[in-house]
Amino acid sequence: MPSRCCYPSLRSHINGLALALLLGVDGAILPPAICRATFNVTLEHLADDELWSPQPLGTLLDVQRMQSHWRERHGIELEEVRGLPAHLLFAGV
Q1: Is 80 within a domain?
Q2: Whole-angstrom Cα distance, residue 28 to residue 74?
Q3: Torsion-angle region of residue 16: left (phi > 0), alpha (psi -120 to 50) or beta?
Q4: With helix as H, strand as E and coil as C, how does the chain read?
Q5: Quick check: 32 and 84 in contact, CB under 8 A?
Q6: N or C: lower Cβ tally within 10 Å for the chain?
Q7: What is the per-residue pLDDT across 59-80, written as a single tens digit (0 to 9) for each?
Q8: Which domain range does residue 20 map to?
Q9: Residue 1: inside a domain, yes or no?
Q10: Of 14, 54, 48, whose CA–CA distance to 34 is shortest?
């Protein structure tokens, strides 16, 4: 298990999948996971680059199992984003 917490990123993935199901799409992109080292920070430090780090999506989700589940039960193909530059990962943080 990674030493960093990916919980905020997990909430984003769950919301995205719920929206895909509601809209009836046939495909969705799983965004990359970003994690922060601690939740014990002030609001001023939340934007610090060293606080956030990209993590493999597999540290947060069982991607292959999810792809199989969503394909078989909902007809939705899930694709994993790979290789985004770090500055794009942190643009919305």
Answers
A1: yes
A2: 12
A3: alpha
A4: CCCCECHHHHHHHHHHHHHHHHHCCCEEEECCEEEECCCCCCHHHCCCHHHEEEECHHHCCCHHHHHHHHHHHHCCEEEECCCCCHHHHCCCC
A5: yes
A6: N
A7: 878 999 999 999 999 999 999 8
A8: 7-89
A9: no
A10: 54
User: How many structural domains is the chain composed of?
Assistant: 1
16-64 residue pLDDT tens: 889 999 999 999 988 777 777 666 666 666 666 566 777 788 887 899 9
Q: How long a stretch of residues is the chain?
A: 93
Q: In whole angstroms, how far apart are CA 41 and each of 47, 52, 58, 91?
A: 10, 12, 26, 19
Using CA atoms, how far apart are residues 90 and 87, in angstroms rounded to an integer? 5
Burial class (CB in 10 A: 0-12, 13-18, 19+), 90: middle
Kindly state the tokens that stand for 40.
Answer: 């014990």
